[in-house]
Design brief:
Largest sheet: 2 strands, antiparallel
Number of helices: 13
Order of helices and strands: HHHHHHHHHHEEHHH
Strand content: under 5%
Shape: globular
Structural class: mainly alpha
Helix content: over 70%
Strand order of the largest sheet: 1-2
Number of strands: 2
Length: 331
């Protein structure tokens, strides 16, 4: 047989193999989508498209990073809390956030990527966390605004995520949402107390709302038309509601809460429409993209602190692993 004939036969076999594999993948993809459409959960050992695996891993790790980085602006106020009660509540909240990060890293690891790798990507600037944590907390009323607005926005997003299609993520959200509701109440209580205080305290509370209102709206991400991940996220039910739908929910419920305690939403274009939803002003997306690119007020500080804490804690991780290895040998 001539060399050209042999090559043609090998090439023909290769194309047949590729076609067979493609048909098998199409069958798997069809079964995968049908499972999601039935409302069933996708578990780690189930077949899934690479794009689904990548999307869920990216979203869960970003969520985990946000929980852990979010401890920094709150930890800054532990030693300056106005009362022992306030300090105990804030400490409990920070401990919860650490736990949330652990749940989410553990859930993300079921996709075959280690926690160490997720953290390395964060330190290298290849992974993101919520843009809101790149803003400073200047006073105690900021602790109230963070709890009320930031955790309030998180609840709106995370309640929806309880129905996400990836099983470990969905189950983690059930527990996290219960604790986040406590965090939101803690923040709102601080703001309500400030609004019952002196004129100076009331002005401080209003200033916190003024500075953190718009960054809180940015937490939901860009408009749907500008979000490259929305299509697959909805199709695969990784999320059930779009960025704009979740943002609207948050605004509709938060405006009434502000009015109840005498605060004013810093949006001159805010208007209650006949359908019961609020029309609101244009978000400064240039600021949003500038912050997520690493140019926010506290980006460098937050990441540097995380890297230092991770390096300083290396001996604890090494000791824990050594102890675990000894237990294996003993048993």
């Amino acid at each position: 047989m001539e060399k050209r004939t042999i090559f043609a036969a090998l090439q023909d076999n290769y194309y047949r193999l590729m076609k067979t594999l493609e048909e098998e993948d199409q069958g798997k993809l069809k079964a995968f989508q049908e499972k999601i459409d039935r409302g069933e959960k996708i578990e780690p050992k189930d077949w899934m498209p690479d794009k689904y695996r990548h999307h869920v891993a990216r979203q869960m790790s970003q969520h985990a990073h946000s929980e852990v980085i979010g401890m920094q602006p709150e930890g800054n106020w532990l030693s300056r809390s106005p009362s022992l009660r306030a300090k105990k509540i804030l400490l409990a909240k920070i401990q919860d956030e650490a736990g949330h990060g652990l749940y989410l890293y553990s859930a993300a690891e079921t996709l075959g990527i280690s926690r160490d790798q997720f953290i390395q990507w964060l330190h290298e600037g290849k992974a993101k966390y919520s843009s809101i944590f790149n803003y400073p907390t200047l006073n105690w009323s900021d602790m109230g605004a963070v709890g009320w607005l930031v955790d309030g926005a998180a609840i709106v997003n995370q309640v929806s995520l309880q129905a996400t299609s990836f099983g470990p993520y969905s189950r983690a959200m059930v527990r996290i949402c219960k604790e986040e509701s406590f965090h939101q109440r803690q923040g709102y209580e601080i703001m309500a107390q400030m609004m019952k205080g002196t004129a100076e305290q009331q002005a401080m509370a209003q200033d916190s709302l003024n500075r953190l209102w718009w960054p809180s709206l940015m937490m939901f991400g860009p408009h749907d038309k500008d979000s490259p991940n929305t299509g697959h996220a909805l199709k695969w039910r990784i999320k059930k509601e779009t960025n704009d739908e979740l943002r609207q929910k948050f605004i509709d419920k938060t405006v009434a809460q502000a009015e109840l305690i005498g605060l004013t939403i810093p949006d001159p274009d805010l208007k209650l429409m006949p359908d019961g939803h609020y029309q609101f002003g244009e978000i400064n997306w240039e600021e949003f993209y500038n912050v997520i690119k690493g140019n926010g007020p506290c980006n460098k500080q937050r990441l540097a602190h995380h890297i230092k804490a991770h390096e300083d804690g290396a001996w604890v991780r090494e000791a824990a692993m050594a102890y675990a290895d000894k237990q294996v040998i003993k048993n």
